[in-house]
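Data availability (excerpt). The following record was deposited with the supplementary files.
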Amino acid sequence: MQAHKSRELALTAALAALVMALPARADDARFNFGGYGRVGFSYDGEGGQCHRSQVVPFGPRLTEGNYLELDFGYRPYTGREAQVRTLVTLALGDQFFHYDGEWDTRMAIRQAFVEVEDLFGTGLFAWVGSRMWRGDDIYLLDFWPMDDLNTLGGAVGWKQGKTELHLHWGVNRLGEQYQHQVFQGRVPFQAQMRDGPDPFFGATTFEVLDRQRTILAMRAEQRYGGDDGALGVKIRLYGEFHYLPDGQRTDEQDLDLKLPLPDDRGWMLGVQVGLWNFGPRAHLNTWLRYASGLAAYDELAVPYGVNRDSRAVDADEVRIAVSGNYEMDAFAVMFGGYARLFWDADVNEADFDDRQEAAFAVRPMLRLGMFTPGVEASMQISRPNGLDPQTDRQDVARVTQLALIPALTLDDDAGSYSRPQIRFIYAVSLLNQAALDRYSVRDPRSTEDVVHFVGVRAEWWFGRGGGY
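Predicted structure:
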């Protein structure tokens, strides 16, 4: 019951934030509604719902679950001094009443910020709030390989012609006891409705650990050419610095026992080189990124494999990636992939947590008006530096997936990135034994070396800009 009430409160808070972000009477020219969605259903050949076969963090997007994002934006002021916009993005996970019969949903506020552009008639801009601060992605893997921050913070910068500079400062605090810990206790209060001095005792919640991660980031971009169909080149430099202060975690069984949590830090540097207009609707992005310490891990995850001081400062990650698209009159092809080398912070050289991994996908399709049939081939590879604790072997896990994708793309000039799209999917995934060993021995999937996916999906996006 308490969990249900918490979800109701979360939904109420999300809707309240949305209402406050919108004016009482929205002028159509100032109001913007947009978003992203993918919704569908699938069969696994035995009457059940299909599951993804994945041995790397970022596998093929094709068989991902349902997901929605709704953007509600408004421009409250447009004048000589500034251009102002507000944006709230609500995200909904894969939980539908028509599927599970539960009057509930999984919702999160992904963005809620105010941005000021063209400040005082110059290229200055600033924003404050909660934001997905991202660069270019690998669409086929649903992956942002370099600049991808989920932050509560702000930024200032400069946009002038083909030059951009962003300086960001933000924080996060995970609900895990790694950063935040609360307890419940009793607190006395004087009875107001009865005689006598005896107090009642009520419940209260108090914090015993509160340490925010501070994230500083810088992004600089310079473009060359690209006008009127000419070849364009983009160079982007990106960096992050992460800092986590020290603290003390309280033992849940013995409240007098304090467990020290040391401070931690990390940094990351990356470079992106992009080309566009070298062909019809063509672009190519390449990335190189190095991360150390906290920055080698996801900023929304607790570091693992820490050193003897319980710090992540000795972790390292190297990442390279590529993504592109090329279209002709009757044919188009998308592709993307990445390779990653990761070493955690402990001293073990033969460590299952340390690994080399890669994923690549390619999707050619025909452009026959709105009928855009395609195929997709992808491969995932994961090689640990140590023995699998379940098998005592060092094997390379591999998943190969082949798919047929007859689709309707509802656009007058349907291309790779045109939406909405309704697609039928038949995919078969081939797993080697090392990939099967990644499952628990009691998991039925641990014996399925051939996995079939039959499904229908709709995907769309609109109101979010676009282009290169």
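Summary of structural features: Residues 2-178+214-462 form a domain with the Maltoporin; Chain A fold (CATH 2.40.170.10).
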